[in-house]
Write a structure and sequence with these properties.
The chain is of the alpha+beta class. It is built from three helices and 24 strands. Among the domains are: 97 residues, conserved putative lor/sdh protein from methanococcus maripaludis s2 fold, CATH 2.40.420; 54 residues, Helix Hairpins (Orthogonal Bundle); 76 residues, Efflux pump adaptor protein, beta barrel domain (Elongation Factor Tu (Ef-tu), domain 3, Beta Barrel). Helix content is 24%, strand content 38%.
């Protein structure tokens, strides 16, 4: 009995071994290829040749992309805080919130004793200059008639130079406030005007209110037809960004809307806390979609250059890297590691590993794994 059991075990083992060997032969027959290192050799009459598809490597223009968050800010030269130049009482307002104004547009009117003093200084300087001019003319007449002295004439010339300088200073002091001194009436109120064109985005004017000359600004004008977008770019990615590069911005408030712009300035210093660098970009905002302080997603686009493009189906994933099979000779393929820049729209952009002119397995490469 024991002998029969042992015989059955031996017979069963023989059957299993025969079946395994037969299956291995079938598997090898189906595979019909052999591997040596990273090279795969396939017989030309093998069934696998009908299961794989070859494609030529294509080189197409591509712009490297760096994506980060950004914040909308006004351009300083297109943003004005306006405070009263003198202490006084506001007697009239010309604007309302959101109003579009041009440069030199009246904003508000203020009645100020300080402004009246500035007017008096101008009129006094004007009168003094006229008196000195008359005195000089008189001295010149005396010299011509032989009864004047050269010293008196020189003193009159010196006095005129001083008077003219004082007049110029008083005149310039009024021009700063966009007042035309020649058309001014002594005691008139000061009309404060906008220094830039833009929209009224801040209006704290209260008619009748007395305001000191060191008060906070009461009007804010901003030209938001263009804005700055401030973004923090990681130190490792800054090499892909240059001034005048194009950018695209995606705004959560407007899904699907893309706003374009250009890199304006790259900061020279790295933020030691975040290891990032501030990048300023200028964006058109004629539609006024971008609001101050709004968050955006910024796509920095490097200048376009030629990159290898392959079908995504050609990519295979190994334990440590992605790879493709490159045709090196008839029915011979080399497993080649590649560095993928990005994959989208069914194609993979290859940064390293492939050159133009190569032919790869674009479909069916997994049969050779």
């Amino acid at each position: 009995m024991k002998y029969q059991v042992q015989l059955q075990v031996v017979l069963l083992s023989s059957v299993i071994c025969f079946t395994a060997c037969k299956n291995k032969d079938v598997e090898n027959e189906v595979k019909g290829y052999h591997v040596k290192g990273d090279t795969v050799y396939i017989g030309s009459d093998n069934i696998l040749t009908s299961k794989i598809k070859l494609s030529d490597v294509e080189v197409e223009p591509y712009s490297r992309e760096v994506i980060t968050a950004g914040t909308v800010q006004p351009i300083p030269t297109q943003f004005a805080y306006i405070a009263p130049p003198f202490s006084g009482r506001i007697v009239k307002s010309y604007i309302k919130m959101g109003q579009r104004v041009s440069a030199n547009t009246p904003l508000f009117e203020i009645n100020s004793p300080d402004f009246t003093s500035a007017q008096k200084d101008f009129y006094q300087a004007h009168s003094a200059k006229e008196l000195v001019q008359k005195e000089l003319k008189r001295k010149e007449d005396l010299i011509e008639n032989g009864v004047g002295s050269q010293k008196e004439l020189e003193e009159a010339l010196s006095a005129l130079q001083i008077a003219e300088k004082e007049y110029e200073n008083a005149h310039a002091a009024l021009l700063v406030f966009q007042v035309t001194p020649e058309n001014m009436v002594l005691g008139q109120s000061l009309i404060v005007r906008s220094p830039i064109s833009g929209n009224v985005i801040g209006n704290n004017i209260v008619t009748g209110q007395y305001i000191k000359d060191d008060s906070e600004p009461i009007v804010t004008i901003a030209d938001l037809s263009q804005v700055w977008v401030t973004a923090q770019v990681k130190e490792k990615d800054i090499r892909f960004i240059h001034e005048e590069d194009d950018i695209e911005m995606h705004i959560q408030a407007y899904p699907g809307k893309i706003v374009k712009g250009k890199v304006f300035h790259i900061e020279e210093a790295v933020d030691e806390a975040t290891r990032s660098i501030k990048v300023l970009s200028v964006c058109d905002n004629k539609e006024e979609l971008l609001k101050i302080g709004m968050y955006t997603t910024v796509h920095f686009l490097d200048k376009s250059s030629g990159f290898v493009h392959i079908p995504e189906t050609a990519l295979l994933q190994g334990e440590k890297y992605s790879y493709v099979y490159v045709l090196s000779a008839p029915d011979t393929y080399v497993r080649t590691p590649v560095e993928v820049e990005v994959s989208k729209n069914g194609k993979a952009v290859i940064a390293e590993g492939l050159g133009s002119g190569s032919k790869i397995i674009s479909e069916g490469g997994y049969y050779l794994k």
